[in-house]
Write a structure and sequence with these properties.
This protein folds into 2 domains: about 30 residues; about 45 residues. The chain is mainly alpha-helical and about 80 residues long.
Length: about 80
């Protein structure tokens, strides 16, 4: 498959998925990576997925800890 065909295929998939999400009333951002099992691109794409997931996990943890701290302060101030 030529590079041009790969890009056309990726564009068709992206458009189809976006239309399905819109029809379902979902607002989501999806990243796509062209990969091949015959070179390192599949490992690079997986690495990007892991990096985004770890960053999101760290942000969620920070928010959770802030909320927990606020709750503890609220409870301790309520009984003073």
């Amino acid at each position: 498959m030529s590079d041009e065909n790969k890009i056309d295929c990726q564009r068709d998939i992206q458009q189809y998925i976006q239309e399905e999400l819109t029809d379902a009333g979902m607002d989501a951002t999806i990243s796509y990576y062209l990969t091949s099992i015959y070179d390192h691109s599949v490992f690079e794409a997986l690495s990007k997925v892991v990096q985004v997931s770890v960053a999101a996990s760290a942000a969620l943890h920070t928010r959770h800890m802030t909320l927990l701290t606020d709750i503890v302060h609220y409870i301790s101030n309520s009984f003073v």
